[in-house]
## 1
Amino acid sequence: MIYSLYIINKAGGLVYQRDFTNHLEKLSSNEYLVLAGTFHGVHAIASKISPLHNSSGIEMLEAENFKLYCQQTLTGTKFLLITGTQQGNVDSYMKRIYDVYSDFVMKNPFHTPEMPIRSEQFDQSLLKFMSTA
């Protein structure tokens, strides 16, 4: 089960957040922003303290009741996908989410990069994909 998607810009700002289940506790807007900024910082630190040169930082974080997957693009945008512990095939979901993002956000001439995503087409395409996932 896929619980949530967060998109964080290269500066650590939350530009998109969507829950795909009603079973999650709702956070305030400020708490979502703090969560994104905190993950951005921890991700940066993890890439610096890695014993391997050019580490990409945190790619997957596993907790008792969920897994958090992070895919970072070449531009520094991070896609965080929070799933159940038994969710498989996450790479294909991340690729499809990125494809939808590319089609409806990055190709939108009215979208300003690094700013919050306000696209009805993106929302609808994402929800359609998640309902079939």
## 2
Amino acid sequence: MAALAQQQLTKGKITLRGSARIVTEFFMFGINSILFQRGIYPVEDFGVKKKYGLDIWVTNDLSVEKYLKKIMDSVEEWLAAGKINKLVLAVNSRETRETLERWQFDIQLVQEDSESADKLAAPPPPKSEKALRMEIQAIFRQIAASVSFLPIIEEKCTFNILVYADSDAEVPTTWTDSDPLHIKNAEQVRLRSFSTDAHRVEAMVAYRRDTDL
């Protein structure tokens, strides 16, 4: 599948299916990077993989791997069908269940935007692999740099993945509805975005404001 997405990227505009694979892969590596950088699991639970021209830390915990893969299998299908508009990674206190950080990725269909534009305007050229890689690299560098502005997490935490899909999306029977896990008195930081020829992903992180400051 990765080879197919790569071929679609270099030989012309990315199809919706190829874009879905690229975005899903970004989510998988991005979530792993956040879990590592924010210390949700011990350092020894991670190993380095080369991706996007960067060294990215990914979990080697089989239960976490299985959990993420199950979610991403559905996410990829919904992306390809245009039935998903947001993915959220919520970091929660294991003891109080309070949400401490909320990493949000908003998803838009680029094709819808282009259809609403001037019909006489020339279509934009296909996005190059280099341009896409540089946009994604910028987000990963921001994730790595987040330790410089996010509060230190001093308590044991867990995480949840929230997926905002259309009402007619086919949801696995093992999935359950969840509240949005918003943060009271939150500070927000807008991160970089990236886009393929079919999807645009905009990222931001919200975190609990230190009431002592």
## 3
Amino acid sequence: MWNVRSVGCGHGLPGIFALLEGAAAVHFQDFNAEVLHCLTIPNLNANLSGKSQPSPSNSTFVTRQNAKHNQGAGYDFILMAETVYSINSLQNLYNLIKKCLRHPDGVVYMAAKKYYFGVGGGSRRFLSVVEKDGELILINAIIFMLEHYSGS
């Protein structure tokens, strides 16, 4: 069984999919508590209620305020989408990944644009933060994604 953290979870679809595919637990994290209460939790209940397994009780909801108290022993998978849009948050996001990822076998799946117009962040900027630190082996996967999937 594996543990998952969904960072910037929004509607929670990747985390819900992880639960349906056998994750022992998924911790849904979003910057805004309103997103968790108004989108994530109702969507989780709608997609998992009535199923024999899993149940929404295998989930934890993490906001910016309580994120430091939910690190645990490490996550096998960290899922994140559209989380690297702000230049100001890239280092904090990377620090969260380093702190939360199970070493040495944890994996991060990230979906993002190369560049977010108007705010300046993007996958290339995030890659530069990762390369500068040199601690995690995320670089090859990120470079592959950048070179082979050229979206905006």
## 4
Amino acid sequence: MGVGEKSLTLKGFHLNRHHHHGHGKKQEFRGVPKGCLAIKVGQGEEQQRFVVPVIYFNHPLFMQLLKEAEEEFGFDQKGTITIPCHVEEFRNVRGMIDREKSLHHHHVGCFGF
């Protein structure tokens, strides 16, 4: 791995992320806060970028979306993970996960971006 790169493996997806140093700033990747990951949802012109907490990757509903991504694209996606469902379906899943998580504890969201 080259200088300034990080490797990240999530549920079988292997990503290389370029690491940029800021002068006294919190280190983030293209506006993605620590503890979150950017993904793409949808296909074609419908496709949108979302920033989600990494804890989502352990949730059964999100794991199902990752399984669909694996079936569509395989494990070796280059760059951002793409979830091939409709954006509205993803928003519904995200809402269910958030409601469930808010019953258990309060967490800082990644959705202000």
